[in-house]
Design goal:
Helix content: 25-40%
CATH class of the largest domain: Alpha Beta
Radius of gyration: 25 Å
Strand content: 15-25%
CATH architecture of the largest domain: Alpha-Beta Complex
CATH topology of the largest domain: Creatine Amidinohydrolase
Shape: globular
Distance between the termini: 60 Å
Structural class: alpha+beta
Length: 595
């Protein structure tokens, strides 16, 4: 018996709820969340970031996307039933709610954890059954014994040396956008956007250096709502100099309700919670648009670009040292998924300006790598053998940037099919990185370049090809991305622009067999302008060899071989002077030209 589930159903019965819904998120709809918000994990035991639960008196349902199907099957409590998002024949959350909720029924959830957009979709789709929402109470707080506390950490000022722009300039840009939209007030809840706007960093979420905060901006005033004692010293002085008023975090909802009646309120309903929009004064007009900061921060300025290149050099040194150690020690001593991950983390943390990991390292051997976001635990940890593949997806935060890189290592003999699959993944990554395209195109237009080698084999991967990367912020940052289609309800893709940094990470994942992924980061840069328009291209800013032991050039075109050799020469020339003589010699061999 799942005891927390039993207690939750008791609380539901007391309130006349026919279903209770939970999502893996926090009040700010962050991708990664602190322990206090791990309610879906607490109930279901599934640890994936994308998780929606619906609990009824008789059933417990769990939805997740294709990145996590195998992981969910392995982890989730047996009382739960898995529903696979995006798979034909599988019910959506709304399909299920339409089926199980009675006429005039009640759906419960914590309104702070559901976006305004999602709540409106549910209201519209469940209107025929006249479903009532009960959203002002967090039932998990009543049933989770020993729930971890929210523990805000001190925030700090991110120096102009690294940011390249003062927060007063950024605030002026936001206000200019507000003026264009005729907005009186801007409600900003995204933690990454606020951290960027105020040149403020913290440690309130693991692997994401942000601060729990809300912000209200008008033409003349800026109010920042944070936990008591979080802001002090240089950051406090800087904010006050900019005219930012610092207020208690818990006062935010009171401030929302006090916005002058009739105000035009700019906010993003795909990020702002229902609990916020429901408390706006009657007569307020919502201007539903993406946060101006989302577009401002995704285009890195010259200082951020220069710093990011430096961070990737340091990260490349750590990756080369890890790759050399792995290749030289496999089969000679016991190495596990966890000990390999620990060794890599040690190399990263030894680099100057390192601030820790940008996300938990994925170190996945053999069948474990078929789970895209697998994280090794003492219970699941595999011992590496001198055969097959090890997939390592990792990254670091540095004062001068954030990195994200994946390499799949050949640890010993592999089959011809495995080599063909490996080569196809590398081909896809190279083809996208070598693109030359007209300004105005989106990642939707270019995704095919990476995916085509896998499609030619009748294989696909159930995720996008790449995402934007933050600057000492979230490693996953929009709005720039590579993906093959627009998800239902998602905004239209944005045009790629110089200064955007996007990952390039195609893969092959065969359930219960193996997984292959190869990932570099691409900086969009100008190429040339002529009578046909302005052409753009990508600069590869990730420096680490691709394991040539998995490459079979018979499957590659001459252009792909040239792209691989050019990339490897760039890796060697960039890193050789930062390595010992022995390490540089190893790298020279690892980046040797192929034919």
């Amino acid at each position: 018996m799942n005891e927390p589930l039993r207690r939750l159903r008791q609380e539901m019965a007391k309130r006349g709820m026919d279903a209770y819904l939970l999502m893996a998120c926090d009040f700010h709809h962050s991708e990664y969340v602190c322990d206090y918000f791990q309610s879906t994990r607490y109930l279901s035991h599934f640890t994936g970031e994308n998780c929606t639960l619906v609990i009824t008196p008789e059933e417990a349902m769990l939805w997740t996307d294709g990145r996590f199907f195998v992981q969910a099957e392995a982890q989730m409590d047996p009382e739960f039933t898995l529903c696979r998002m995006g798979v034909a024949g599988e019910p959506t959350v709304v399909d299920y709610l339409k089926k199980v909720l009675p006429e005039n029924g009640c759906l419960g959830f914590d309104g702070r954890l559901i976006t305004s957009r999602q709540a409106k979709i549910w209201q519209r789709q469940l209107a025929a059954k006249k479903i009532r929402f009960s959203w002002e109470e967090d039932l998990i707080d009543l049933v989770w014994e020993d729930r971890p506390a929210i523990s805000p950490q001190p925030a700090w000022l991110f120096p102009l040396t690294y940011t390249g722009r003062d927060s007063s300039e950024k605030l002026a840009d936001v206000r200019a956008k507000m003026a264009q939209l005729h907005a009186d007030v801007h409600v900003l809840t995204s933690l990454e956007d606020q951290a960027w706007l105020f040149n403020m960093r913290g440690n309130d979420i693991a692997c994401t250096p942000v601060v729990f905060a809300y912000t209200l901006i008008t033409e003349k005033e800026t109010e920042l709502f944070v936990y008591d004692g979080v802001i002090s010293g240089e950051l406090e002085a800087d904010l006050k100099e900019k005219g930012v008023v610092i207020r208690p975090y818990q006062d935010f909802y009171t401030a929302i309700a006090a916005i002058p009646a009739g105000s035009r309120v700019l906010l993003s309903e795909k990020v702002v919670s229902m609990a916020i929009t429901a408390r706006l004064p009657e007569g307020s007009r919502i201007i539903n648009a993406d946060n101006p900061t989302a577009y401002l921060k995704c285009i890195k300025n010259p200082t951020e670009i220069a710093c990011t290149r430096n961070s990737h050099i340091k990260d490349g040194v750590a990756m080369v040292r890890f790759s050399k150690w792995l290749k030289e020690h496999i089969g000679k001593e016991e190495i596990t998924e966890i000990s390999a991950s620990d060794y890599l983390e040690k190399q990263r943390r030894a680099q100057p300006l390192n601030q820790g990991l940008s996300f938990p390292t994925i170190s996945a051997y053999g069948p474990n790598a078929a789970m895209m976001h697998y994280i090794a635990t003492p219970e699941s940890c595999a011992v590496l053998k001198p055969e097959g593949f090890l997939l390592v997806d990792s990254g670091g935060h540095y004062l001068d940037g954030t990195t994200d890189i994946t390499r799949t290592y050949v640890l010993g003999p592999i089959t011809e099919t495995m080599k063909k699959h490996y080569t196809s993944v590398v081909r896809g990554m190279l083809n996208l990185s070598g693109a030359r395209f007209l300004e105005g195109l989106t990642g939707l237009s270019l995704d095919y370049l990476a995916r085509e080698p896998m499609w030619a084999l009748g294989i696909d991967y159930r995720c996008g090809t790449g995402h934007g990367v933050g600057y000492l912020l979230s490693v996953h940052e929009g709005p720039n991305e590579f993906r093959p289609f627009v998800r239902p309800g998602s905004p239209q893709p944005v045009a790629l622009k110089p200064g955007m940094i996007t990952t390039d990470e195609p893969g092959i994942y065969l359930d219960h067999q193996y997984g292959i992924r190869c990932e570099n980061e691409l900086l969009c840069v100008e190429d040339e302008e002529n009578e046909y328009g302005r052409f753009l291209k990508f600069e590869l800013i990730t420096y680490c060899p691709i394991d040539l032991d998995g490459i079979d050039t018979q499957y590659m075109t001459k252009r792909e071989i040239r792209l691989l050799n050019e990339y490897h020469e760039k890796v060697y020339q960039t890193l050789k002077d930062h390595l010992t003589e022995e390490e540089a010699a190893w790298l020279r061999e690892a980046t040797r030209p192929v034919e």
